[in-house]
Amino acid sequence: xxxxxxxxxxxxxxxxxxxxxxxxxxxxxxxxxxxxxxxxxxxxxxxxxxxxxxxxxxxxxxxxxxxxxxxxxxxxxxxxxxxxxxxxxxxxxxxxxxxxxxxxxxxxxxxxxxxxxxxxxxxxxxxxxxxxxxxxxxxxxxxxxxxxxxxxxxxxxxxxxxxxxxxxxxxxxxxxxxxxxxxxxxxxxxxxxxxxxxxxxxxxxxxxxxxxxxxxxxxxxxxxxxxxxxxxxxxxxxxxxxxxxxxxxxxxxxxxxxxxxxxxxxxxxxxxxxxxxxxxxxxxxxxxxxxxxxxxxxxxxxxxxxxxxxxxxxxxxxxxxxxxxxxxxxxxxxxxxxxxxxxxxxxxxxxxxxxxxxxxxxxxxxxxxxxxxxxxxxxxxxxxxxxxxxxxxxxxxxxxxxxxxx
Length: 406
Hints:
Layout: H1 12-29, H2 32-36, H3 40-51, E1 57-58, E2 64-65, E3 69-77, E4 80-96, E5 117-118, E6 124-131, H4 136-193, E7 205-208, E8 210-212, E9 233-236, H5 238-257, H6 259-262, H7 267-281, E10 282-284, E11 291-292, E12 298-303, E13 306-315, H8 320-330, E14 334-346, H9 351-363, E15 368-375, E16 380-386, E17 389-402
Parallel strand pairs: 7-9, 13-14, 14-17
Antiparallel strand pairs: 1-4, 2-4, 3-4, 4-6, 5-6, 8-10, 11-12, 12-13, 15-16, 16-17
């Protein structure tokens, strides 16, 4: 019985290239509303799953042998035809992973790949061996060698697939950002054209510029907004977010260098001190007074009656402090890509131990999605999502303040 070689029906590199291209095309095929209405993290995760190729792994402890079949084989030698009776053995080898890999040649390859075929169910490979002498030891040795050879070739394929996945994972953020930027620019162009455009309520984010000024600088009033049907959602630019956090860290350092100043302050008094720093450094072009308070302990950047930055101030009284603060923060009406800071005032105890508990409490919150890029003693970043909408993400920075009691 004729059996084809494995790993010889094409190049794995070409297959992976086509998979990567298909992922790019998939991103382009999504509707603008879907791309603009879904977070980067969720878009990237969906595309990663579509690009994912799991290299096969042989499940050798579940290998089985089909009932041997006796067959008559005919041969031609020197012009003469003759036949032999042989026993054909078929080894059934289950595997996990992507079946197509068994058909493709990796960049490192064997010039004489093993023979075998994929079963019709796509979850097994079949290895065959014809025997005339009923030599069980030789048959077992042949199958073991073949399995070892297949696993070696799969190791080579796995290296190629890992490189493919690495390339995809590092390229997707750029592709998603470029696509979102293009679509957002299209929407802004539509707005400038001025004709009414039918739009769903859920739209994309635009940047609210914030510029650094001195305390004495006159604040300008925001310019009138367009009455166009299209109205992108506001968002605080990343560099302005980092600038705001830097001001808060500087204020924290000032407090920690002079502990007697804030020793008797409550949350509201500490918050008012921080507002002085913030309002001395920033003004907003989208609203009159950018940093202002709402409620007892909140620091807000507001535009269009919605909060795009929320600074929540809390004195540490145990892990419940964190869950209560997050619940309060999530109680605000937020736009997509809202940015937030949880300012944790620690009166006593081991700061490292407190922060370990605080971080753990954030990660157990039902709205927690993932850790952010920065995890240090002075700052821990997280991604959480808004209530009832996992696509509306909030970038959260947890900043500890050491403010001893009087």
